[in-house]
Design goal:
18% of the residues lie in helices and 24% in strands. By secondary structure, the chain is of the alpha+beta class.
């Protein structure tokens, strides 16, 4: 696992399970050009017909696909139509204070004026940004910083027994700042 230096501490976290599943996939990267990464395409097949029939190439935004595969592998319920990032606003339960392992949904407006989104997992925050682990971030699975002002909603898995390390994490203002919309 080639996790960025400033986030190495995550490898010592004992859960939540979704975080552990996500860390396994660090550095999975989209294939350049017309080629497709078979690992990313296999996630669609693993999720089943509703996703596999739509997701045919890794050039299609895959943040929702990444979130769906880690949720499924963690034994949790995947949201309806998981490829649409904003649909992750129905996952689990709402939280006003994001914490380790929570699902964060971000909103943006496309150049055509449409509402679009991005979904990733909270690993920490600084004064201006959330530090998020997700797919299709610079065309790979990695951790970036995303401005807090674009947060649409934060959702926590509906835990029966919440892991003790689910907590707010304050980090220094360092790390890759998302310079483009996802």
């Amino acid at each position: 696992m080639a996790i960025q230096k400033e986030y190495q501490w995550l490898t010592n976290e004992n859960g939540p399970k979704m975080l552990n599943e996500a860390l396994i996939l660090i550095d999975v990267i989209e294939s350049p050009g017309t080629a497709d990464n078979p690992v990313i395409l296999s996630w669609a097949a693993e999720l089943g017909a509703n996703v596999a029939s739509v997701y045919k190439a890794d050039e299609i935004p895959w943040c929702g696909l990444f979130m769906a595969i880690i949720v499924k592998r963690s034994g949790r319920q995947v949201v309806k139509d998981p490829l649409w990032a904003l649909n992750w606003g129905t996952f689990g339960v709402h939280t006003d204070k994001p914490a380790l392992g929570d699902v964060l949904v971000f909103v943006r407006t496309t150049p055509e004026g449409h509402k679009a989104g991005h979904v990733a997992m909270y690993v920490g925050e600084d004064a201006k940004c959330y530090h998020i682990l997700g797919g299709n971030q610079s065309d790979k699975v990695c951790i970036v910083r995303k401005e807090k002002k674009s947060l649409y909603i934060a959702r926590r898995p509906n835990y029966i027994n919440q892991p003790k390390n689910v907590r707010q994490i304050i980090l220094p203002e360092s790390g890759l700042l998302s310079s483009k919309e996802f």
